[in-house]
């Protein structure tokens, strides 16, 4: 979308704001990224929601119930890619899977995959960082989801589920047969609903990104998150965890950090920490699982994200060619 970048650059310069200045550069980054991400967002939500209309929770549970062992974890992780964009939205589906008797580790494979490697992340990362980086990101994210679920299954932590979750009774419903018009209407409604929920985080994320891009000294970013700091990945992961946003709000920040000299794996670890382990989602999850299981889940995700971050840093020279 270079034409859009040029359009905003010309518009700002015509009203007397030089885009080479800090203020002009910040305004250009903010306007361009807000519009670009909004276009991506609406197109993605519509397309993904149309696909989701074929996979209501009841059908998804039946599909998962046909598989066992590692194959069930793989299917759960893949199904996570066509479900909600944020971790808080994934937890009710996780609860439904567990209440329906889906193995605990399989449900957690879904819970890890859903916010981290949805189809939106693939398309957005492709648009910002390129297909090579986006593909490796999705592959490693799915691998973390599968292995994380297998570890939880191996630890036999079924007794670490809160009684309230065990008391939930799965409701058997007839699967609706929707017409094409109804699916399109559903997708359009999902665009409206999700956009209203997500847009404030886009504004916040792009706003932070524009400040990083034009106001924070490059040497500061490099010293904290560049090659000179071997614990930059760990720092970025831990900083990202308390935040709450989705892929659409974190990508502008990651883009700005990378342009300022942060390492690729470090900014992707930050993104994963924000989208997978946000504080609100962990509070919600604590309501239905006990501290030991919650701590195990968080620990697996943190270690996996950090490892993925270092892998990306090691491959940065190849991936950014």
Automatic annotation (TrEMBL):
Membrane topology per the entry is:
Multi-pass membrane protein
Query: What are the transmembrane regions?
Result: 37-55, 67-85, 91-112, 119-152, 198-216, 228-245, 265-285, 297-319
Chief location: membrane
The protein's superkingdom reads: Bacteria
Q: What are the GO cellular component annotations?
A: plasma membrane
Which keywords does this Swiss-Prot/TrEMBL entry list?
Cell membrane, Membrane, Transmembrane, Transmembrane helix
Its name, as the record gives it, is Permease
């Amino acid at each position: 979308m270079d034409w859009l970048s040029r359009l905003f650059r010309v518009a700002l310069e015509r009203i007397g704001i030089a885009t080479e200045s800090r203020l002009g550069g910040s305004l250009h980054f903010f306007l361009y990224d807000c519009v670009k991400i909004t276009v991506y967002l609406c197109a993605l939500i519509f397309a993904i929601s149309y696909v989701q209309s074929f996979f209501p929770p009841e059908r998804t549970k039946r599909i998962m119930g046909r598989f066992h062992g590692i194959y069930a974890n793989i299917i759960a992780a893949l199904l996570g890619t066509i479900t909600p964009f944020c971790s808080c939205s994934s937890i009710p589906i996780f609860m439904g899977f567990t209440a329906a008797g889906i193995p605990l580790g399989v449900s957690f494979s879904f819970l890890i995959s859903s916010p981290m490697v949805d189809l939106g992340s693939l398309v957005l990362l492709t648009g910002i960082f390129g297909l090579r980086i986006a593909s490796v990101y999705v592959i490693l994210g799915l691998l973390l989801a599968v292995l994380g679920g297998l570890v939880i299954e191996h630890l036999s932590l079924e007794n670490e589920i809160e009684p309230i979750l065990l008391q939930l009774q799965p409701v058997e419903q007839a699967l609706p047969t929707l017409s094409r018009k109804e699916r399109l209407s559903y997708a359009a409604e999902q665009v409206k609903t999700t956009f209203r929920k997500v847009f404030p985080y886009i504004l916040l994320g792009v706003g932070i990104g524009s400040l990083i891009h034009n106001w924070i000294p490059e040497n500061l970013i490099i010293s904290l998150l560049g090659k000179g700091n071997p614990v930059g990945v760990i720092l970025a992961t831990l900083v990202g965890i308390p935040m709450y946003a989705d892929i659409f709000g974190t990508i502008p920040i990651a883009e700005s950090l990378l342009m300022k000299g942060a390492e690729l794996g470090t900014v992707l670890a930050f993104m994963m920490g924000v989208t997978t382990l946000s504080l609100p989602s962990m509070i919600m999850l604590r309501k239905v699982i006990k501290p030991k299981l919650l701590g195990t889940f968080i620990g697996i995700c943190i270690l996996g994200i950090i490892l993925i971050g270092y892998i990306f840093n090691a491959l940065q020279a190849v991936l950014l060619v």
